[in-house]
Amino acid sequence: MFPLTKIRIRVFILCASLFAVQSEAQVSRIAGRPLSSNVIVPQAHYLSSHHAPDVRLDAIEAGVVIENGIATTTLDIQISNPHSQRQEAELVTPVPDGAVVREFTFQGAAKEPTAETLPKDEARRTYDAITAKTRDPALLEFVGYNLIRTSVFPIEANGTQKFRLTYEQILPADGSRIDYVLPRSESIHNTVPWSISLRIKSKTPISTVYSPSHPIETIRPDRKSSSTDILSVRTTKEAMTQPGSFRFSYLLEQEGVTASLFAYPEAKVGGGYFLLLAGLPSKPQESKKETAIKREVILVLDRSGSMNGEKIEQVREAAKQILSSLGEGESFNIITYNNVVDQFSKEAVIASKTTIAAARNYLDGIQSRGGTNIYDALTEALRVKPVDNSLPIVMFLTDGLPTVGQTSEVEIRKVAMKANPYNRRIFTFGVGVDVNTPLLEKIASETRATATFVFPNEDVEVKVAQVFNYLTGPVLADPEIEVVDASGNPAPSRVRDVIPDTIPDLFEGNQMVLLGQYSDDEDLTFRLRGNYLGEQRTFRFHFTLDQATVKNAFVPRLWASRQIAVLVDAIRQLGADGSPFSSTPTVTHQGKVQELADEIVRLSIEFGILTEYTSFLAREGTNLNQRSEVLAEAVSNFNQRAMNTRTGLGAVNQGMNANFMKTQQVLNLSNRFYDEKMNSVSIGNVQQIHDKAFYQRANRWVDSQIVEKEQDIHPTKTIEFGSDEFRELALKLAETGRQGSLSLRGDILLEMEGETILVKGPLMD
């Protein structure tokens, strides 16, 4: 059994022997110098120019090395001067507490470059000075951070300048979790590309890595020849212009499953929100001579007439690739279907040279003709008892709608939900866009699996291989998690609205991200059970909530995204076999859709999370005060799109959006989604700032907490930009990490501690 561990924050003290301490004289020399004509704040992508031509920030590369809990961050920054006169600039960089400068260099001949770390009070005075001169609130996001300020450096006429800044810090730890933050602007209008890479070295093996702010890719070299675990992590290409501070955590491996908790307190829900992150051992099979959990793989392949040509060839090759990837003792079968259902064997066979060779011959003989009998094919795949002690997996491929036999979407759905006695995982693949997207999604989600859609210009073999590679090395099968009290008895009332409600199996390299709400502030103990490497195991994780903080603002927003996806899926499933609104809707159906839509609208407005169905909430002219009209438009969108559009490109895009949101682990600050033509769309007049959301109404940004009653609200206080009250408000907001609310351009109407405050934006010269 996993040892009972209390998770607490460790406090680190920066040793003078490790980092040099700056004298007050050094700090005052930098802090007291007048600002350069150009001030560069790379995290804000912000340039200020005082009576001089602007310079341009081109690109930033951030390289981070973390070794034994100490992070060294190197920023390589390139700027250019597109004008005919030489310019000068200085760098102002917000950094976390405890960070100290190690190096500052730039190209070209000049005085010896210097850089100093300014403490918070001195940093705030510098921010105030820049803000006062530029009349631009962008820097206010970083009030409360320390600051690195550099000496002045040149940028030649029509030239570029590259410079490097390196700083070090000791990272905070919460039990087995180490956290790193690179401060950056949350503004969705900043588009300078950032490339972020990390290299983590640890004497203790690393269980898993996680970023709630940006999608990442991980490479783990083979560490057989080294006692140190080394991981390379980088943000994806899609994340290069994604805004927000880069947040990153990694878990140091413990015996079995390792877990950590992020908590966000919220009185409105009677406790708060939580994110449970769990990881597996980096080498779970290392001590075993063979795979502990064997897979039984049933390939169910559509061979109807529409599969003829390149599609059936790609499916054959995908099937052969899967067969060649099976390990010793694993089993398989092949089922093909058109009007009728055929199979390679009456039951699954153990993979061997002989059986795989025979299966290849069987695949080569498949011909494409006839209709599509999905119901019978699915029934046959689930009927036969699987090989003992195996994890039963079905790979179900189709390129069309059911045309033969039972064609009802509801009845086919019931097969997966009620006629699956051995709990097979059904991974569905829609080849092309002429498939019933909600049906394939539901079949998969009800069986701990996923749905994948292959576009006409994509290779079926590649997409199938990607999914099957994910299913390598089952580690924890049939996982179940619950909250228990101090005596080990189930305590379901301690948490609610936990997503996902059914945890998928965990394979090598997987992690579990569980989101939900908790009640009161008592300790939480989770009990995780399942088939761990062939044995029934129980793991217990005990967490105190004394470290719950509103600075974990990503937790409630990720929960809200998933909750919206769950509610949207419920509406989509109501449209099976014809929308109830298409002819004579029943009162029951109308009531269900109205209820679901009302909750989706509420969550969307509160958290600033918009979808293709609710993007109209950000539209200029939409009066959110008129709730009945807003709800009517939302219901109309759900009826037309979610319920009635079940096939074609306009259905596949909904499936892509749903798959992302239902398993969302990373913030989507720009509210990006695919429209019905598969165009990528983002929304610029709704801004998510920390745990708040703001809607742009003309030249005013309105807090989501009061946007529905904006027209009836009279501010209890008006604060002018740059005033003493303004600075006091910024410091007050910084205590909870919400100071970014003041960085929006224009007037800001926000709610704070029961007051409605109007912050007047700066008057530009």
Structural notes for this entry:
The structure is a single chain. With 765 residues, the protein is an alpha+beta fold. The chain folds into five domains: 24-252, Immunoglobulin-like; 258-288 and 475-543, Gamma-adaptin ear (GAE) domain (Immunoglobulin-like, Sandwich), CATH 2.60.40; 294-472, Rossmann fold; 553-684, no CATH class; 686-765, no CATH class. 23% of the residues lie in helices and 33% in strands. It is globular.
Instruction: Kindly report the average pLDDT value.
Output: 89
From the spread of the alpha carbons, the general shape counts as globular
Give the distance, in angstroms, between the N- and C-terminal Cα atoms.
Answer: 68 Å
Largest beta sheet: strand ordering:
8-12-6-5-15-18-17
CATH architecture of the largest domain: Sandwich
Q: How much strand content do the residues show?
A: 25-35%
Helix percent reads: 10-25%
Major β-sheet profile: 7 strands, mixed
